[in-house]
Amino acid sequence: MKQRFTLLALLLTALLLLAQGAQAQAFDLVVAKDGSGAYRTVQAAINAAPTGRTTVFTIFIKNGKYREKLTVPANKPFLQFVGESVAGTVLTWNDANTPTFPGNSASVIINASDVSALNITFENSYGDAPQGLAMYITGDRVAFKNCRFLGGQDTMQLNSQAGNRSYFKECYIDGVVDFIFGAGRGLFENCIVYPRTRRDGGSGGYITAANTQPGQAYGFVFRNCTIPENRGTTTYTLGRPWQNDLGSTPTDRSASRVVWLNTTMGNSIKPAGWQVWDAGTVTSVIQYAEYKSRDFSGNLVNTSQRVPWSFQLADADTVNYTRAAVLGSWDPCTVVPNFCGHQDPAIAVSNFRAVKGSGPAPSALTWNSSWLIAGVQYQLFRSSARRGTYTQLYSTTSSVAANINFGTTDPIPSPGTSYFYYVRASKTGLATHVTDTLEISSTPTIFTSGTTQAFLQGGTPPSAAQNLLVSAENLTGAVTVTPPAGFEVSANGGATWFGSAAPLALAPGSAGAVASTTLSVRLNAAAVGTYGGNLTLASAGAATVNVPVSGLKQAAALPQSVVLQWWPMARSSQDSAAVRVAALQVSTPTLRKFVLSSGSAAATIPPYSRTYGQAFAPVADGGWTTALGGNGGNLNRTYYEQFTIAPSGGSAVRLDSVVFNAYVTGSVSNTKLAVVWSRSGFATDSADVTGGKGPGGILLSSANGGFATPILTTNTSAAYRLALAGATGLTLAAGQRLTFRVYFSCGSTTVTTRFATLKNVQAKGEANLVSGARRAVAQPLQLYPNPATAQCLVMHPAASREASIAVYSSLGQRVATVPCAAGAQQTLLNLTSLAPGFYVVRYTGDNEQFVVPLRKE
Questions:
Q1: Active-site residue flag, 315
Q2: pTM greater than 0.70 (yes/no)
Q3: Keyword annotations for this protein (predicted)?
Q4: Less Cβ crowding at N or C end of the chain, within 10 Å?
Q5: Catalytic, out of 95, 114, 174, 178
């Protein structure tokens, strides 16, 4: 039977703490999930810790899995985290660098200096890819002892442009791609560095990806470390040089430095040892070196096939890589007594996985030991119920310390049932480790992602669609998607719609799964009124999933949205006087903590251009790191560009959306944007945009442009259309104003050429609304549709015989002219010859001209 604590484990922990001295025992705060400490969460303890300390402030964390995304702010130095046991104290989260998980993907972010941790596991459980950090360090003098770092791609980033120092003593670090990376200075002593077998079947990986900055004497130094063999299907190089590639300029090219001294390594390391990033790598500035690398038999590794630009160090060279040489004036051995001394390794199982078999193939149960310990018994237990009776399925004992990979197989459970597994690892004299319980299920399950906002339908046409994601597994039949009365759903982008009378059926594949599918939802009611209920997703044997939806159908058609104000951003930040409706005042945006590109040779991008629009960053040459004064990969409410929209005279204006093109040049590392608006200039109110469309179509609610759910931008300038306040928008009366702010972030550590860009910023809505006794005035010129593709219809006043319509590019060149038929009130424009982009349509009649922007897609 599983037990959370054992008397032996508690005794050993107490002895360890005694060995570390009175300082480590005098805990200032205690965290415990069961409520027996001062706080139940680690972040709450961090928040309660004092700022500006000059001596250690200790936080003891009792055993438990703490599912938190943690940040140690820069103003809280000298925090020390002590876990009850390295196997039992786990700080975990599962973000990744994807649109579904926007933001810094790190489970733990340490921005403070003089932080230390002992006996703790730091984990990002997302998987092998994409980027998902367990640890992100920007502070100086950060030390770890007897800790585990579990991840996949980019497990750990030592991120500093100034060579800030980190120290790792007898730690375990694993991953698959660049899993120790960054620009900081890191010393790793007696650590286990485990390059795992890739779960995606990939045959290659990389341990380090240092982007050591020019002029720094040290990057990553590994002393007396071990690289165990994995399961044999993935081979690795010791490192590759991040940011020394085709995209780097001589001024920002990294001079990567990685040295392995007295390393024990297996056959998982490729004979070449190292590799370039791409064809643009300049190897002459790289320092990759080894000293007496040995195999597990104690023999020197054959380095004759190492890349010719790497080095084999001589005995005399090693004096340059002592602890004092690498870390300089900082001595991490003073963190607590015996911090740099040896500690016997603990039993800790890592990477316990249960992979369901397919067809006749059985399920695979695999795991590895974190530290090299011979004589450990591994027992695999199974039950048909999570809290049922577990019986031993498999047992093995490690014969030699170097053998750390274990596993077995088991038939898949019968349809409609599940198996539950855990591993118990034990050895006399050591604390036992019992893993989490994993499930292999043959139970049909339906998954959904996303929520909807209230729908609004005006007149006959259906409402705008909103999207959800749906998937399923272990199915024995189709997933039936039934909308409530008045609503419709589509699984093919709106080509075919299904209602409550004839629901949508999503058929599973041969493996009983429905791949992730975008489900579009709209209100298409026949009668005026309110509508609501649940969108139900059901399949035989699966729990029914209900997604609430609500909406309103009104008799009146929805108001037409036209461009009211336009900031092209191609030559300056001024708005276009030709496009701005008379109901609005002149307005120029302002930057806060962002500055325009310097346009220098280092920046490479001008402050304004037709290609990029406006280019800006926290630093004029395009840097974003906190060391340069930027906000890095995290959105910050003090870094933004602000736009103001204000009615003039006695006019009222309805605003429904903002449209713009945006991206961050040269990077997709935590490149996020969000838009927030206010009626009070952010003095008393603030609201997020409510979603809209991006380059991939309708934005999901998890990445819809809100500050907490930002958009993760792509690597090219893309159009975004974001609703300010749902389908109805908002109305500004005379004398009121609306302010909206566009926030950006970028996690790239490159110090130049990374710029946020904005172009063709538009505020859309309807001007000249009825206000009091004032009558509404119709818009004199409207385009349908806008944006358009092949053609659009221009609605204009009754044309005279000389009336015509001209189309101008965003730089003012006339690209098309079409005469208007006398007396006509509409003219069709053929757009097939125009390239995608923004244009201005000008109608010229008898002594009158009207102008409106057009977007060609």
A1: no
A2: no
A3: Aspartyl esterase, Hydrolase, Signal
A4: N
A5: 178
